[in-house]
Amino acid sequence: LKPSNKTFHVHPRLLSSDVYSQYESFRQGKQEIPKYFNFASDVLDKWSEIEKAGKRPSNPAFWWVNGKGEEVKWSFEELGFLSRKVANVLTKECGLQKGDRLILILPRIPEWWLVKVACMRAGIVIIPGTSQLSAKDILYRLQVSKATCIITTDKLAPAVDSVASQCQLLKTKLMVSKGSREGWLNFTEMYQNQSADHSCIKTKIQDPMIIFFTSGTTGFPKMAQHSQGSLGFRPLLSERYKFMNLKYCISGGEPLNPEVMEQWKSQTGLEICEVYGQTEMGVICSVYGGMKIKPGSMGKAAPLYDVQIIDKNANILPPGQQGEIAIRSKPIRPLGFFSEYLDNPKKTAETERGDFYVTGDRGIMDEEGYFQFIGRNDDIIISSGYRIGPFEVENALIEHPAVVESAVVSSPDPLRGEVVKAFVVLSPNFSSTDKKSLISDLQDHVKKTTAPYKYPRKVEFVKELPKTITGKIKRNELRDKEWGRT
Ligand code: ATP
Ligand code: MG
């Protein structure tokens, strides 16, 4: 990345190490962060020019293969051509303008990327959503985001229609489909017939580009807004993942039990690299290629971020001490960071402490810079003065053959204030075992596997655990029930 005239220019053979060194010089204040940036015009269109001049290898810009083996391959020029057509659909046909918000709920079909690049070209703020969303989830997202346009499939169109009357701001509905539906525009037909004449809008690096809804593990999903700059920066770094043969397995979003890792390895011969991150800034820690894997650890800090364990006064804690996982955010807010939680300045302010952004998660860093996840702040159980992370108790439980999965939360206790309670999903082989003896068996097992004070004094067997759409355990829901909160 070579900034000149305050615009990013991208080196044709961009290497991650170039990005890091550029990033370092921004961080050290040696170079000014450019004022304007747009990933479509400053990166994709530049690569298209380089491609046209024959100065780059003939790798496709975009290569998509589905489960049936169908392929779509585009050069940078083709990607540019098609995404300009889509930009015209959005601006001319749908009347969307810079700053307007668009909800995009599609499976990962080529149109998904076309819309994304088209939105960059037009300055439209994109709000992606998974196709697993229910009508209720869509209603919440439409209402809080104030989106004026939605693009989805014919499969989800009825769900949108069932709630659309409660979303006064929603003006345009576009469907990626071969068929038609009343009140909907046909995206596929419209973009094929559009002109490809579109000039990319000029955007400031801090202009909003995308709003991600967080997973909603701890409450209603928050809107983490990312800028043109923060969005542009990651796609550049994700170049490293090439799925030619399965060689690397990655897990993230939830702690990875060492037991699961062990089982995976014994059945596939492969190790799982853990990634720890947040919607707010992407990858925070990870096990990178060639790094030693330590079971139960999430790897080292991502090169872009200065990750530390801090205390409640923002002091950095030494290796081995438990505290809050934080990322240095001052004096320069890292480029990959979200801008704010939209319409929620209080929540945004809560993430700031001294020179740091606090993740809301607790962890420990070891002497080698590896991070271990302890738990979300709110999930930590304080029993008789001891701090207990649910994850270590869950790790111990899952080693027992009767346990399929578990969630550990705090539960009220007249003597200790709160105690450890485990909600356990039993393996079918143990469904007829006497529950009383099974409980004491599980308790003994945990006492032997971790420090005895961490054992679950209360155990409840359940058929399933409450989870988010993406499969994250909603421990707060179980905890609230325990404490009689709604
Ligand atoms: P919400 O903020 O809406 O309550 P969420 O925090 O689950 O939901 P995401 O941004 O999708 O939303 O998830 C980030 C969180 O997921 C992290 O803060 C952390 O608690 C957890 N997480 C992510 N990766 C890992 C990991 N490798 N190990 C343990 N926890 C992880
Ligand atoms: Mg979160």
Strand count, sense and closure of the main sheet? Answer: 5 strands, parallel
Give the names of the bound compounds: adenosine-5'-triphosphate, magnesium ion
Terminal residue distance:
50 Å
General shape: globular
SSE-based structural type: alpha/beta
Which spans have pLDDT < 50 for at least 5 consecutive residues? 1-15, 235-244
Largest beta sheet: what is the strand line-up? 4-3-5-6-7
Mean pLDDT: 89
Helix content: 25-40%
What share of the residues does DSSP label as strand, in percent? 25-35%
Helical run tally: 13
Radius of gyration, whole Å: 24 Å
How many DSSP-defined strands? 24
Summarize the structure.
The protein is an alpha/beta fold. The protein is built from 13 helices and 24 strands.
Sum up the structure in keywords.
binds magnesium ion, binds adenosine-5'-triphosphate, 13 helices, five-stranded parallel beta sheet, about 475 residues, 24 strands
Report on the architecture of this protein:
This protein has 13 helices and 24 strands. It is α/β, with parallel strands linked by helices. The strands form 7 sheets. It has a 5-stranded parallel sheet, sandwiched between helices. Helix 4 links the parallel strand 3 and strand 4. The site of magnesium ion has 2 residues, from loops.
Give the SSE layout.
Elements: H1 16-27, H2 39-52, E1 62-65, E2 71-74, H3 76-93, E3 101-105, H4 110-122, E4 125-129, H5 135-145, E5 149-153, H6 157-164, E6 172-176, E7 185-186, H7 187-192, E8 208-213, E9 223-227, H8 228-237, E10 249-252, H9 258-268, E11 272-278, E12 282-286, E13 300-301, E14 307-310, E15 323-328, E16 338-341, H10 345-350, E17 352-353, E18 356-365, E19 371-376, E20 381-383, E21 386-388, H11 390-398, E22 403-413, E23 417-426, H12 435-449, E24 458-461, H13 475-482
Parallel strand pairs: 3-4, 3-5, 5-6, 6-7, 10-11, 23-24
Antiparallel strand pairs: 1-2, 8-9, 9-16, 11-12, 12-13, 14-15, 15-18, 17-18, 18-19, 20-21, 22-23
Helix pairs in contact: 3-4, 5-6
The protein binds adenosine-5'-triphosphate (ATP) and magnesium ion.
The site of magnesium ion (MG) has 2 residues, from loops.
